[in-house]
Amino acid sequence: MKTRIAIAAAALVIATAATAYARIKLTTLPERETVRIDIRNGRYTLVEEERTVNLQQGRNQVDFSWANISIDKDSIVFRIIKADGEVNVLNTNYPPNENALYWAVSAAKAGPAVIRISYLIGNMAAGPSYQGVVENDEKKLLMQVYMTVTNTSGESFGRCTVQPGVGKTTGRYFNIGERKRMLAAKFAEVPIEKRYVFDAAIDQKRTRMYYRLVNDKDNSMGRFPLPHGKVRLFIKEPETSENDEVRSQAFLGEDWARYTPLFAPLDLYVGVAQDVKAERFTMQPEKGPKAVHDELTCPRFTLDGKQSVTKPRFRHHRTRFRYRLQNFKTDNGEPITVPLSIKEHVDGEWIIEKVVLKELEGERNKLVEKVIPHAEMFTAKRIDTGNIEFEVKLPPTTIEKKYDLFVTILRKWRRY
After folding, report:
1. Domain count of the chain?
2. Both 341 and 398 in a single domain?
3. Can you tell me whether residue 146 is helix, strand or coil?
4. Is the pLDDT of residue 38 over 70?
5. Interior CA angle at 47 toward 43 and 49, to 5°?
6. Cβ-count burial of 99 within 10 angstroms (0-12 exposed, 13-18 middle, 19+ buried)?
7. Average pLDDT over residues 38-44
8. Do 34 and 105 reside in the same domain of the chain?
9. What one-character-per-residue DSSP string does 159-211 give?
10. For residues 152 and 16, which has the higher predicted lDDT (pLDDT)?
């Protein structure tokens, strides 16, 4: 059942013994002139509707009732937007055990008045999704943000403006049970940074490729924080005609975009990289045992208070990794250097004890190893106490030329 709003005009009745207000007429309000639906809140939807009513001079009563609709009764607000004279809301009344209320309104003059009634309604939802069209050179893309809005509230709103949560407000007819997919925003020529990520916790031998976008105005975005939603990526086929609109597109893949605030990066998984490879091996430490006891010690006592064997306060654990790195990436046929991120997951207190970068040429018995400076190629970035990321500017390699990166990590474990 639709919401029903009625206005009752009350006139002053003069009697011999007392004076009282009485409802003398009940008039159904005209159709909604404007309706605005705001679905930015995940739990409730804000509805604002405006109508023009005729008020009588003196006291009036405006009734509001509903059925089979999830309206938060405490959220209903009545406001006078425009009137010929002064209009005041005297009080709000809630009849017991009813989905209804009414307002007592006083009008200085009789005449039309524009009123606005706003309330929170349930069972409406908006879900974001994305579609990205990548240029053939993979340097820019067109990102389109869609909001799919579903109306299961039990109310038909007819023509209205819908604010789906992000992006632009759209005019729609929005009736019971309808589901609409609306274009909320479009970002053209967004720069792409291709990132190659190796994480042994996900895959021991393969490198994953990502497109990195930055949600700021310098990168053609930055209008609002990007909500969590599914992203489908397509790539344009090579140009075959002057008309760019007729170029066909190939499906690249899909990923879930995390919530991305302003000025933050967004990484979208594209697939396994075929031309940038990394592989991790766990090696024996160069010198000394894996477990190292700290010189600091703490005494242990028996139940009778006597000191027992003194044990180390700390026990350190040394781990050495070797990463075999190869880069066959080209741009217009020319070999290029690519950024490679290597992720490691550690725990406890830890430090990077040693880093060595070697250049290898040849195969098997003819293999030649050479230690090279790594300061300009390697950077260690501490993400948090449990995660570290190695950034490597990986030069081009060949079948016979490759790189080995050795990293020794010392973990500190407390023994209290």
Report:
1. 3
2. yes
3. strand
4. yes
5. 175
6. middle
7. 82
8. yes
9. EEEEE-SSS--EEEE--TT-EEEEEEEEEEEEE-EEEEEEETTT-SS--EEEE
10. 152
**Residue 48 main-chain phi, psi, to 5 deg:** -125, 125
* pLDDT given for residue 19 in this prediction: 36
Q: Assign 3-class secondary structure to 251-296.
A: EEEEEEECCECCCCEEEEEEEECCCEEEEEEEECCCCCCCEEECCC
191, two tokens: 């720069």
Residue 130 scores a pLDDT above 50: yes
What is the phi/psi pair of residue 325, to 5°?
Answer: -120, 135
Instruction: Examine the pLDDT at 412 and tell me if it is beyond 90.
Output: no
DSSP annotation string for 106-124: EESS-EEEEEEEEEEE-SE
Residue with tokens 């003819």: 366
Q: What is the DSSP letter of 237?
A: P
User: Can you say whether the dihedral through the CA atoms of 112, 118, 123, 125 is positive or negative?
Assistant: positive
Looking at the structure, do residues 136 and 268 belong to the same domain, yes or no? yes
Dist CA 23 CA 61 (whole Å): 8
| Token duo for residue 265 | 């990066």
Q: What pLDDT, in 10s, does the model give residues 333-388?
A: 899 999 999 999 988 788 898 999 999 998 878 889 999 999 999 999 988 888 99
Q: Based on the fold, state whether residues 75 and 94 are members of the same structural domain.
A: yes
HSE value, Cβ hemisphere, 13 Å, CA-based, for 186 = 5
> What's the pTM value of the predicted model, to 2 decimals?
0.76
Cα(211)–Cα(270) distance, integer angstroms: 7
Looking at per-residue pLDDT, the higher value among 268 and 318 belongs to: 268
What does the pLDDT read at residue 40?
Answer: 81
Domain assignment of residue 243, given as a range: 124-272
- Specify whether 383 is located in the same domain as 268: no
Reading the block at residue 115, the tokens are 């009123």
